[in-house]
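REVIEWER CHECKLIST
Item 1: Sequence provided? yes
Item 2: Single chain? yes
Item 3: Sequence as submitted:
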Amino acid sequence: MKLLLYSHYFAPSIGGVETVVMSLARGLAESRGELGAAEIELTVVTQTPRDSFKDEELPFHVVRKANFLRLLKLVVVADVIHVAGPALSPLLLGLLMRKPVVVEHHGFQVICPTGQLFIESRGEPCPGHFMAGNQSECWRCDPALDWFASKKLWLLTFVRRWLCKKAAANIMPTQWLGTQLKLPNETMIHHGLVPIEAIRKARPEPRQKPLVVFQGRLVTTKGAFVLLEAARILFGQKVEFELLFIGDGPEKTKLETITKAAPWAAHVRFAGRLETTELEAVLQEASVVVVPSLGGEVFGMVAAENMQRGIPVIASDLGSLAEVLGDSCITFRTGDSTELANKIRELLQSPKRLEEIGHQEKVRAAQAFPVRKMVHEHRLLYGRLTYDGTARSN
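Item 4: Structure as written out by the authors:
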C-alpha cells in the first residue's frame, strides 16, 4: 500500500501535531507483515523547511515544500491520502482523484475559523457561533483580526467542513472531539505515546520543597496565568512549594515581569524550552504537573505524557482532558484559580495520595495510549478503506 501522509507542520518544528505525526509515521514505516515484508510505502509531505534536520535518517520518504504539481503527482500514485488536519490542497486533490481520504483532526478548523474554539485576544472560550448558525457573530468574534482576515477564515471554515464531510474517514483522538465536530464517517483513535526511557523512578531522597510544574507553550490558551494566580493564593497561605514553567512563547515576558514584582519571586522559575534529556531529569523531581488550559485542547499530550511518567496531573475540566485522565481524573473548573489552588494544596499535603494517583495514571497511560495501538488501528483503517475501494471498482 502506498500511503501519502500530509502534515503542514513536521520536524524540526516542535508541537503536538508534529509529535503525533512523527510517531505514527515511524510506526507505519517500520510495521511488517507476516512474512516480514514492509506493508506500507510511506511518503510524508510537509511545508516545514528541512533546515539542519536529517531526513535521510528517517525510515520513510519526506517531501518538503511541494508545489501544487508535485503534490498532484504524489496524490495520483498514492492508494490512501492521510491529512493531519483539514489542509485544503491534499484534501481537494485526494477527493478529485477519487482516493480514500482520511482526515485526522488536531484542532477545531471545521467548526471555528481560528481553529482554536477560543478567542485569543479576549482570553475567552468560543461560544460556538459557527455551529449555532450565528454567522455574523462568528466571523467578527475576534477583534484582533481585521475584516478581511476574519471573513477569509470564516469562509474557509465552510470549505473545510464540506470537504471533510466527503472524506472516507474522520479520525478523532477523543470521543469528546467527535461530539463537537459532528462529522460523518467518524472513528476514534487515541494518540499514542512513545515509551519514555527515563520513566519516573523513586527519588533517592525527598525534595526540601514539592515541585509544581507547568509544561507547554506560554500562550493564552494554555492558561499559565491561571496557574500563576493559583500559586499567588497558595504562597499567601504559606504553602511551601516551588513552581517551574517549562516552555517558551509570547506570554513568557509578561509572566516573568509579574513574577519579578511579587514577594514570592524566588519560588518561581522559568526554564524555557528544554532538550529531552534535561526535560526528563527535571520532571523526575516533579510532584505535580498542572495543565490549566482554557481551550484549544483536542487530546492533551502534556497530560498523557506525564501520566506515562507516573506524575500526578491536575487539569482544567475541558472535555478532552477529562477523557484522557479517565478515572484518575483530578480536574478544576476551567479558569478558576481558587479551585486550582485548593486542588494543588490538597495533593501536596497528602504524599500517599500523590503516589496512588501517579500509579493509577501510569497504568491508564500504558493501557489506553500505547503507540503500537495507535499504529495498529490506523493500519486497520487504511486496509479497510483500500479493500472497500477495490471491491467497489470491481
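Item 5: Key structural point noted by reviewer: Residues 234 and 363 are 30 Å apart (CA to CA).
Item 6: Recommendation: ____
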